[in-house]
Design goal:
Elements (H helix, E strand, L loop, with lengths): L1 H18 L7 H10 L4 H25 L2 H8 L3 H14 L13 H10 L4 H25 L7
Helix pairs in contact: 1-2, 1-3, 2-3, 2-7, 3-6, 3-7, 5-6
């Protein structure tokens, strides 16, 4: 079973990475699935967090180095959307990266933070903390409440 869990961790990493980009995917479900299969709670949270964080950083750097045309083509984010986000980015700066885990708007936040060239170090740290907090909360819910009845 250990070997199967190793493959599961790789799948969790890849799924978490991809879900932090514009690909609609739920890394939360993958995390819960790994826990239900007997994955170690600490390893599972770390793998999901690192994968999701690196995917978020990919979105950030696509914004950082990207051009409008690329962002619209690959991420399907319109110029108007990023211009609307500029007000939030100007107001909250890098700390907005803490919310990059949110469905629908989180990817736009990550791209916008890169596009408007927020502090890379602070953005990276806030993004890691936000994504990690989310997975820790899911793992705690699973550990203390359990989700066996839902699946």
């Amino acid at each position: 079973m250990e070997n199967l869990l190793d493959y599961g961790y790789w799948g969790l990493f890849l799924g978490s990475f991809l879900s932090a980009t514009i690909i609609p995917f739920s890394s939360d479900i993958l995390l819960l699935g790994m826990l239900m299969l007997g994955g170690d709670i600490y390893v599972t949270v770390i793998v999901a967090t690192v994968g999701n964080w690196l995917g978020g950083l990919l979105s950030y750097y696509m914004g950082f180095f990207g051009k409008w045309e690329w962002i619209e083509k690959w991420f399907r984010v319109k110029e108007e959307t990023l211009l609307k986000q500029k007000k939030l980015i100007t107001k909250y700066g890098s700390s907005l990266a803490f919310l990059s885990w949110l469905p629908l708007v989180g990817d736009v936040f990550a791209i916008g933070l890169g596009f408007y060239k927020t502090n890379q170090y602070k953005t990276s740290v806030f993004m890691f903390l936000g994504k990690g907090t989310r997975f820790v909360l899911w793992a705690l819910l699973y550990h203390y409440i359990g989700f066996q009845g839902f699946f």
